[in-house]
Design brief:
Radius of gyration: 19 Å
Number of domains: 1
Strand content: 15-25%
CATH architecture: Alpha-Beta Complex
Shape: globular
Order of helices and strands: EEEHEHHEHEEEEHEH
Largest sheet: 6 strands, mixed
CATH class: Alpha Beta
Number of helices: 6
CATH topology: Spore Coat Polysaccharide Biosynthesis Protein SpsA, Chain A
Structural class: alpha/beta
Distance between the termini: 34 Å
CATH superfamily: Spore Coat Polysaccharide Biosynthesis Protein SpsA, Chain A
Number of strands: 10
Length: about 230
């Protein structure tokens, strides 16, 4: 059995009510729920929230909210791993622990069901603890700059000054969309960024952080250009 777990607390600060604010015609969290449903991979889609309005919107789009998240896991400092462990403990106590689970962020409107499927395939093919979405940096990080204490610029890795960027290798960052895990292995390590994590490569045009109103506007324009 596979379970999707979507963390969605109510106390977003930079974009109030971010998880249920309308994005491209539907509440933000609905995009994640719909992608999970369309993938056909999950026997259950569970939303972990402390907020009744988020809970109701989630139910309206086909997810279940079988418990409310405790306040100590809904503040600005609660990490994703702690939230997932709480949900898994709830399932274990009822004898419903899944073979694998997928944490899907509530603010990932570009998540596609085909990449969710690729993630599960990679998890089992590589016999890994976790598999999660990554995308490449647009420019080589190995030629990155920083400012010094006196306001001047310097290379972080000056040894790469005269090397061609194509010779420096690719670098990736977390795409912030989804994280598959083998449940038993994850309970042993209790980290999504496990020691043997494998990548699920997402094209850069399907990745957009949404942390500010400007990010939101940019993401909606991207979404409409891609899917309208």
């Amino acid at each position: 059995m596979n379970v999707a777990i979507i963390p969605a607390r109510g106390g977003s600060k930079r974009i109030p009510r971010k998880n249920i604010k309308p994005f491209a015609g539907r509440p933000m969290i609905a995009h994640s729920i719909v992608a999970a449903r369309e993938s056909g991979l999950f026997e259950r889609i569970i939303v972990s929230t402390d907020d009744e309005e988020i809970a109701q919107v989630s139910r309206d789009y086909g997810a279940e909210v079988p418990f409310m998240r405790p306040a100590e896991l809904a503040d600005d400092f609660a990490g994703t791993d702690a939230v997932l462990l709480h949900a898994l403990t709830w399932l274990k106590e009822r004898g419903e622990l899944p073979d694998a689970f997928c944490c899907i962020y509530a603010t990932a409107p570009f998540v596609r069901s085909e990449f969710l499927r690729q993630g599960l395939e990679a998890l089992y093919r590589e016999e890994a603890t976790t598999a999660f979405s990554v995308t490449s940096f647009a420019y080589s990080i190995f030629r990155a700059l920083r400012t010094t204490t006196n306001g001047r610029l310097e290379m972080i890795w000056p040894e790469n000054r005269d090397r061609r960027s194509q010779d420096l290798g690719e670098a990736y960052h977390d795409a912030g969309q989804f994280y598959w895990a083998d449940t038993q292995k994850y309970l042993g390590e209790q980290k999504l960024f496990s020691r043997d994590a494998v990548p699920v490569f997402i094209p850069r045009y399907l990745v957009q952080d949404i942390d500010t109103p400007e990010d939101w506007e940019t993401a909606e324009r991207m979404y409409r250009a891609l899917f309208s």
